[in-house]
Amino acid sequence: MSSAVDYFVQEKIWFDKPRYDDAERHFYERINSTSHPAQELGANTILQDIARARENIQKSLAGSAANGAGDQGELITRIKSLELENNSLNQGVLCILIASSLQGTSVQQQKTSPPVEDEDDDDDDMDLFGSDEEEDAEAERLKELRLKEYAEKKAKKPTLIAKSSILLDVKPWDDETDMAKLEECVRSVVADGLLWGQSKLVPVGYGIRKLQIQCVVEDDKVGTDLLEEEITKFEDFVQSVDVAAFNKI
Predict the structure, then answer these.
(1) Mean pLDDT highest for which of 98-107, 119-128, 132-141, 234-243?
(2) What is the distance of C-alpha 218 from the center of its chain?
């Protein structure tokens, strides 16, 4: 009985209990700060084994105190077995705590570390931006070139001039009027955009004939009012001027 008591005096399990309690507390703190279900499951299993080992030790001590004179050899064997099991469990707990600590540090570094920008990506972005500017400049140059070509082509293209064909009836005063002189006076009217054409004498009655003369005019430059005004200036020969026909060309 005394040798068994001496053996328990030298045993360190109960004297080192605060150290195991601290390790267990740190372990639970690490478990709460991380999200790793597999590690939590392993740690819970180890803690359950530790609790069973302690319960067995307490039962063994209680049985030894009650029986007093029990088999000391069997008790010592069980105590050694429990000691080995306890050491194995302690090592497992320490390994898990160390692994949890390392993993938590790695996760914290990943959270605090700024993302590294890829210099090659920046270079590619700059190149793409430069390409866009070059394409815009090229498109603008082509646009200006096409506008210039269109303006030149339009300038070379002849402008459509609106023209009219006019047939005038020029009446003399009487049958004694010199119709040749009258026609000469009419054709003496000159203006930009005026071109005289064929003429003929048409009988009116009582021996009187009128001059029927054709002309082509540019609408923007010569009108019927201008022609009538200029021809009637020859009042010695011309009585009146009428527009017999007016056609757009």
Answers:
(1) 234-243
(2) 57
